[in-house]
Amino acid sequence: MSKSVDDVDREVVRRRAVLMTMTRALAAVCVAQRVPGAAFALTSDDTDDDASQEAIEAQMRAVMERQSGEQVFVKQVGLQSNATDGVKACAFEISNLWRVGEATTNGLSTEWGEIIDPVNGEAARGALVFATQNFGVKSIVDLGKPEDISVAKVLGLDGDDFYRRADMLGAAKRVDKNNQVYYDWELIASPPSASCSSAIGCLYPEHIFLISASVLDGVLYVLSIDATPANWRTTGSSMKKMRNSFEVGIAAPSSDGAA
User: What is the pTM of this model?
Assistant: First the structure.
């Protein structure tokens, strides 16, 4: 059945409206996910409609491909430059959709900057891994039950007042695929009294630390993720997964980036 002139005009208007809606929606998604080449110019010129729609559809396919299927988790490797004197590389995993600050290795520690979730914003202030040689026990279980351990003191974190004052929220034992045993904790820390304007102010926590520790060949390895209570409320489950992915004794990447 042939279309009338009015029908054709309505179809053109409808296509333009759909095009404008798709463009705005895709631009918002691409900005959030930082998809390259995601800037589109809105135009009503008939000659640009087809080209613009093709570009939009191509970008939409790219976004859908990224968002579909199994989510990819990328290893963040620490201590790879210190694989001597019995110290080996360690790592934790983070979603490929998140951004993590550049890693800086200094002696027997590696520190990452702010971790960003494109949807919720800041997920954590940062992460730290460090190693302590000649720790004195063969396995983390030799320290006793995880809930009975004075975490800051035993792991060597008590030089920081926040860690020293922190209260334990949770503790658990974890065993990886290589039968390596880890202890995992969540600690909550209020500010030291000297920095509070009132006693009530000191009741509000400023840090939540997600910590994992293990001992391998006499070396203690510790991961600590530093988050705020706001981070914890929005991305706490994802941060736990990040902390629980901590593994020690991995193969350090070669200079060309291959493991």
Answer: 0.69
